[in-house]
Design goal:
By secondary structure, the chain is an alpha/beta fold. It has nine helices and six strands; from the N terminus they run αααβααβαβαβββαα. 47% of the residues are buried. The structure holds iron/sulfur cluster.
Length: 262
Amino acid sequence: MDETGTTGQPPGPGEPDFPAQHAPHPTRLDELDALMVRCRACPRLVAWREEVAVVKRAAFRDQEYWARPVPGFGPADAALAVIGLAPAAHGGNRTGRMFTGDAAGDFLFAALHAVGLASQPTATHAGDGLTLHGVRLASPVRCAPPQNRPTTAERDTCRPWLSAELELLSPGLRVLVVLGGFGWQALLPVLADAGWQLPRPRPAFGHGAQVTLSGTDGREDLRLIGCYHPSQRNTFTGRLTPAMLVDVFREAADLAGLPTTP
Ligand code: SF4
């Protein structure tokens, strides 16, 4: 140990400052993803993601769960990013791919496909052939939380992963669709970290809410669009319909300059 009481070694995956110390360094998304999947910085979430993988849901009893942080999904030059909150215990935490293998993902990918942003309307597992066109899916928290609710501390600990991801995407990134108010609240500080100016007062979440954030350091402006989360609570009640989600993605794609199907 040195006089500061530390070993002088970079923090390991189980230490709280592993994301803050390591996330800013990769120069490619695949390098960032490779680091992120080793992260064990949040003890409660690590315990939960691994417990779920042992207990499993009956329908998936024969499957081996991913049980690690879930990296972003989509091309490294995406002009549009879709941001949720965190992976689902039996969805992304099982399949290892964002929104893949749960009901919210079924709703989401059907809408992306309807607009021409996804190669197929379904997403069942990581090797199912699905590709996204100009879109990347990511989240401010990378491990499945109990009750889908990360704590404030977990959200803050995980923030550097998404900050770094958005920074690497920033040369081509023009539009963000943010799914749900929790994701919106979690994302705003990430955007400030990654180099965009937040207006004051901070913009409020709403379905269809839009705000343009000015880029700093030569970064292009970024358009933020709010959208209800495609959780079953919203889709079963009709609060979010397939047509509403298609409309949001079509507008987002137009703003991002991505081609869409009629
Ligand atoms: Fe690491 Fe984020 Fe998972 Fe916490 S939530 S263990 S910071 S990847």
